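Give me the 3D structure for ACO12 thioesterase.
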Amino acid sequence: RIGQIITIKAKVNRAFKTSMEVGIKVTVQDVLTNVEKIVSVAYATYVAKPVGAGKIELEPVKLLSREDHLEHTLAIERRRIRLGYEQVFQNLMQESNKEGDYCNSFEEEDAVSTDLTHVQSIELVQPPHANHHGNTFGGQIMAWMETVASISASRLCRSYPVLKSVNMFKFWGPSIVGDRLVFNAIVNNTFQNSVEVGVRVEAYNCEEWIKGQARHINSAFLIFNTVNDKGELLTFPRIKP
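Predicted structure for ACO12 thioesterase (241 residues):
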C-alpha cells in the first residue's frame, strides 16, 4: 500500500545450459511498525538473447551458501514440474477435441454462464511499455492481464476480487512497439472460495490487424478470492461452461 517500503531481491538459482531460473522475493516494510512481511515469491525463466543464430550457453552458478544449494536443487524440480504441466495440458487438449461438446451435458441449478464473465481489452504498445530490446515489458503485459482478469472475476462475484497467484504465465512469442494486443479473459471454474480466470493475449502489427492474423504471445491462469468487511472469504457461485 501507499507509504510502505517494498524490497525486491532477485538472484539466479540455477543455469540449465541455455536457460536460467531467477528467484524473486518481494517483502514489504511498514514504516510505523517496522514490521517486515513477505508479499510474494516468484520464479522466472530466462534465456540469453543471442547475437547471431546460435544459442548462448551459460556458465554454472557458483553456490556460496546453504540456501544457494537448496534453491539450486529445488530449481531442477520446479523445471521438471513445469515441463510436466505442459505435457499434461497438451494431452488434455487433445482428449477434449475428441470428446465433443461438454456444454450440452452440463446441468446445475443457479449456475452462472461463463459468457457473462468474458471480457476483452485492446492495448497499443507504446515506447514506455517496451524494454531496451524493443519488446513489450513482461510486467506490463502481466499488469494488463491482471486488469482484464479482475474485471472478469468481478462479474461473477459482484465485488472486488483479490489476486492470489498467477500460474503458468508464459511467453509464446514477443510483441513490440506499435503492436495491438488483444486480451481475452473468462472464468474457467470456481472452487468455493477461489476462482480461476484464464487470459489469452494475441498480438497484431498493422498488416496483421488488417488481415486478421493474430500471434498468440501469452497465456496465464489467475487465481482470485474475495473477502467481506470482516476479512472473511466469500463463496463463489458455480459456473456453467
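Residues 198 and 221 are 5 Å apart (CA to CA). Let me know if you want a second pass.
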